[in-house]
Amino acid sequence: MPHAAETVTLRRPGARPMLPLDIAGLTLAVDSRRLVDDLTLRLKGSGLTVIMGPNGAGKSLLLRLIHGLIRPTAGAISWGGVPMSAGLRVRQAMVFQRPVLLRRSVAANIDFVLGLRGAIGARAAAERRDRLLDRVGLLGHARQSARLLSGGEQQRLALARALAVEPEVLFLDEATASLDPASTQMIEEIVLAERGRGTKVIFVTHDIGQARRLADDVVFLHRGRLVEHRPARQFFDDPSSPPARAYLDGRIVL
Amino acid sequence: MQDLADAVRMALSLAMSGDAGFIEIVLLSLRVSLSATAIACLIGLPLGALIAIGRFAGRGPLIVIVNALMGLPPVVVGLVVYLNFSRAGPLGWLGLLYTPTAMIVAQTILVAPIVIALSRQVLEDLHAEYDEQFRSLNVPRGTAVWALIGDGRHALMTVALAGFGRAVAEVGAVIIVGGNIDHLTRVMTTAIALETSKGDLALALALGMVLLAVALAVNALVMGLRASARRSAYV
């Protein structure tokens, strides 16, 4: 897939590194139901972390909590030793399961985000936008309405928009769950390329095959609790917990 | 029934004749009500958007009040504006009473709550869809307001139409602050009221039909714009 090599590795010179991510005693309770339950976890370095687990395990909630979109009931989240805040969120981006695109053209969806991040000049912004669209294979659709793209194209646009903020941490919440294999593959390739650039990727999926393809390490959740966090190979070769083993075997985990 | 047949004939001949006095009335109606709608939108859309996305104390009661203000009786608005603009009133020195400007002010007050309340509803739904994505992107509140208004523009056009409909059809406010002065502040609704009280029911009906036609034309125009936007697919 052709894409211009971007040479930015240290995207915010002078800023403290985002990692490690430290989660301590994280709990989210709604009506006394503990949807995320006393979760403690540390993610170090870069690489691609896959968060797995059956439906209702709390994967998407965990992602929203660590991205600061939901306030936890209890517990602490810090990035590089700094408590999560809106200021840190600027250095992160998230691709949601269902892309939420502006009711504008494909190009305008990217322009909107580039415009948020201050002045880089109209020409530089247009060049960056075209490069991003090219990267997700949508340059030819730049003038179309974003809402008329196919599901796969919409999600690729959402990914390009997330990359427009030059995130140091990229979250994907079952971003390929409803996409065809070709779109899924394209998104996986781009995400792996991002990881290669040093971006921390945190990828929620319940697709075991996808997790095998992508993961450097796996966080397995069950009923809001952390069950396992291990390097991918160890996890897939020899899951240590009964729920994870049952899940990988394709048995229903309740 | 005689009146109705006469009215139809008269409405047609009025519209065809190009009678200067008649055209003056129609144009003033449009000028006053379109201006009032435009000003009400300028004020009301951002306010509606702020209420839609804001989370502040008193938001619930504020929504109830704004919704209730949609039912403001025009005569009451007219009276309040009259008191403010009358010679002895606090704004009397402006000398605006019995001018089209006073009529625009009165109709703006009537239309603004409609624009605020309906746009709040439209934008709140849109905001529910965009909120998480916008927070993820750290979109500042001001930018979010304009993005919502921009993306909700088609639904908001209908809101503006509702406001215009209210303005162009009301008589109570403009007759109090405008005074129905020939060649100066006479609009379609006040002319209808006058002709009715003079007993010229056919002319009154004819004017009523023209009023309806104008309202239809404005609506058709906006719907046409909307349809063409839909075809170019920024839905």
CATH fold node name of chain A? Rossmann fold
- Portion of residues within helices of chain A: 25-40%
Spans where pLDDT lies below 50 across 5 or more residues of chain B: none
Which range best describes the helical content of chain B: under 10%, 10-25%, 25-40%, 40-55%, 55-70% or over 70%?
over 70%
What does this structure look like?
The complex is a heterodimer of chains A (254) and B (235). Chain A has 254 residues and is of the alpha/beta class. Chain A is 34% helix and 24% strand. Chain A has a 6-stranded mixed beta sheet, with helices on both faces. Chain A has a 4-stranded antiparallel beta sheet with strand order 2-1-4-5, with helices on one face. In chain A, β4 and β5 form a beta hairpin. In chain B, α4 runs parallel beside α8 (172-178) and α7 packs antiparallel against α10. Chain B has 10 helices and no strands. Chain B has one domain: MetI-like fold (Orthogonal Bundle), CATH 1.10.3720.10. In chain B, 40% of the residues are buried. Chain B has helices spanning 2-17, 20-53, 59-69, 74-85, 100-136, 141-151, 153-169, 172-178, 188-198, 201-231. Chain B is 80% helix and 0% strand. The longest helix of chain B is centred in the middle third of the chain and has 37 residues, at 100-136. The model of chain B has no long low-confidence stretch (mean pLDDT 90). Classes of the chains: A alpha/beta (254), B mainly alpha (235). The interface between A and B is medium-sized, with 23 and 18 residues.
